[in-house]
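Data availability (excerpt). The following record was deposited with the supplementary files.
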Amino acid sequence: MKYLEMAIDAAKSLGAEYADIRIHKTTSESIFLRNMSLKNTAQQEVFGYGVRVFKNGAWGFAHSNVFTDDAVTKTVNRAYELALQSGRLKYGDGLKLATERSYIDTYRTPFEIDPFQVPLSQKVELMMDVNKTLLNYNDIKQTLFLMECQKDEKLFASTLGTRLDLTTLLVEPMLRATAVTTKDSQSRSFREGGKAAGWEYIEQINWQEKAEKIAQEAIMKANADSLGEEEQRTLLLDPIHLSLTMHESVGHPTELDRVLGWEADFAGISFATPEKLGNFQYGSKLVNFIADNTLQGGLATAGYDDDGVPNQKWYIIKDGILKEYGTTRDTAPLLNLQMSRGCNRATSYFDFPINRIPNLYLQPGKQDLSPNDLIADTEDAVLIEGQGSFSIDQHRVNFQFGGDMFWEIKNGKKIRPLKKIIYKSNNPEFWNSVDAICDNRYFRTFGVTNCGKGQPGQRGRMTHGAALTRFRNIRVGGSQ
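Predicted structure:
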């Protein structure tokens, strides 16, 4: 597109030290059913471009959705003027940009069926059938089914000579059933997050089986007992649950902008400060967290980030030791790093890219270990499946989490369902308590599509993963 070259030429003529333009179209669809009623459908297209200019150690950013020669030139000029003004207020010598080369490339999320080519009527019919299955159970009084699809198409150009054509696609279903019995009302969900894939992902799910499972477990949960007072207990945490736990207690604390205090007035800071790199025992020796923006099906897998840096794979935590952060071209030099890890992403064309969590997962255990083997090896524990409530402090140290389904483990067997349970812990107590992780055969992922960060707020996405993991001596008890 000619506007890419026009913007880059204009920025160079003004004297920009670096500049880029990101033409970005987002197409989204959401469908929401409650019981047998279609409550809402929404289809939206957001299309425009954002221009960044770097000058005198500071950024300027401007955006527009008007595609004319005059509008593009004015947008570049505005970004340049903002960079000059920002440079007057910079701290010290201002920012520097990590070294990067130029790329000419194309990336497409692999898919078989474009969800935007599937008729709305077909999608609604599937969702209605699933809700009907749930409501066949007398104690299921409410069902919710939400389906979201999103396609992002980007053209990127920079003064380095980079020219990128990137298209990503995601689909995300979420199903919930609420049971009401004489004892209580409780909900159970099928929720595995977003997947970088096409509609074929939805067709591969056995919806009849999923619906029956969550209906039965919602009823079990409503009739279940809770635990007594808080005690030190063993926890078995499933991959879907752990995806939220690692997001909050590992993902956010290792974003370098948060470590540097850039999010302090809004989302908080991090206890995982730079002097801890290479020596801080974040977890037990079994704990290895890998950042992997090349992960197949990962929501942060996009070929390149919004700095034009290629997707990469690296250790955040290795053998329990804090090794590295997620970085961008303007945060990496602050730790004397020469290269960015490619974690700069914006939600829409009108957003300035910020340091985001990469695809991040807990590496499975190296020894053969199935969930059944792990349960058989556990005398007394609580098994938590799925995600529930959570709370974590501004330093990402102290936290508490709930869940979606709970089971009591006694003498190596799952003996009964439980409900209303929370656990409390802190970094690094929690991750240092890990003493067993199931192997790669049982690794599962969860795609986060609603990670909130930034001012003004942006909605980021990334994928986490794990296998069933055991934690010892964690404070676990019943909640109200």
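Summary of structural features: DSSP finds nine helices and 24 strands in the chain.
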